[in-house]
Amino acid sequence: MTKLTGPKKIDTAVFISGTGTNLSSLIKFSLKKRSPIIIKVVVSNKSKAKGLNFAKKHKIKVNIFKFNLKDDQKILNFLSKNQIKLICLAGFMKILSKKFIKKFEGKILNIHPSLLPKYKGLNTHERVQKKNEKFSGCTVHLVNSKLKSEKIILKKKVKIFKKDTSKKLAKRILKQEHIIYPKAILKLLSSL
């Protein structure tokens, strides 16, 4: 990947599975003059993912894949054809194969709704509250083939209040996700 010099923006793919609020936030960020990325494609494992509407609204190319092993080469070909240099996972609920990750090593970012390395996996807000944690938050990290050793780019702490439901906590953390994901992209790309 190239350093951030000149007006050339880095061709980026965003992978989603759901509502796409982080996708929407990343699209807004990509349209800013100072943004180093341009979102060329949105990829989903669900044809009915609500987030696909954001892509369509902004006339961004969309493709749906099942993300089974047979799809790996098709997905890699699609990304290569579109000259994708960076992948942002945004509420993407599939595990990428080692072969896939190897092809994009150091160029796949993910956002997770906890302060990694704590509370990996699903149902993070419920798990955090069960353990009576005082803080939770979100983390942007690089994805690699060893699930336990992601390189953390940026974290944001969010206080947990006694009256919080997991929904209220999730909402507050999501607001922070929208803030730190663009910052993490800037941080990562300026260090390359």
Q: What is the CATH class designation?
A: Alpha Beta
For this structure, the CATH topology is: Rossmann fold
Strand content: 15-25%
Share of helical residues: 25-40%
| Structural classification | alpha/beta
What does this structure look like?
The chain is of the alpha/beta class and 192 residues long. The chain has one domain: 3-Layer(aba) Sandwich (Rossmann fold), CATH 3.40.50.170. 34% of the residues lie in helices and 23% in strands. It contains six helices and seven strands; from the N terminus they run E-H-E-H-E-H-E-H-E-H-E-E-H. It has a seven-stranded mixed beta sheet with strand order 3-2-1-4-5-6-7.
Q: Helices, strands, pairings?
A:
Blueprint: E1 10-16, H1 21-30, E2 37-44, H2 52-57, E3 61-64, H3 71-81, E4 86-89, H4 98-103, E5 108-112, H5 124-130, E6 135-142, E7 151-159, H6 166-190
Helix pairs in contact: 1-6
Structural features:
192 residues; alpha/beta; Rossmann fold; 7-stranded mixed β-sheet; 6 helices; disordered N terminus
Q: What is the compact description of this entry?
A:
With 192 residues, this protein is of the alpha/beta class. The chain is built from 6 helices and 7 strands. The protein has a single domain (10-190), classed as Rossmann fold (3-Layer(aba) Sandwich), CATH 3.40.50.
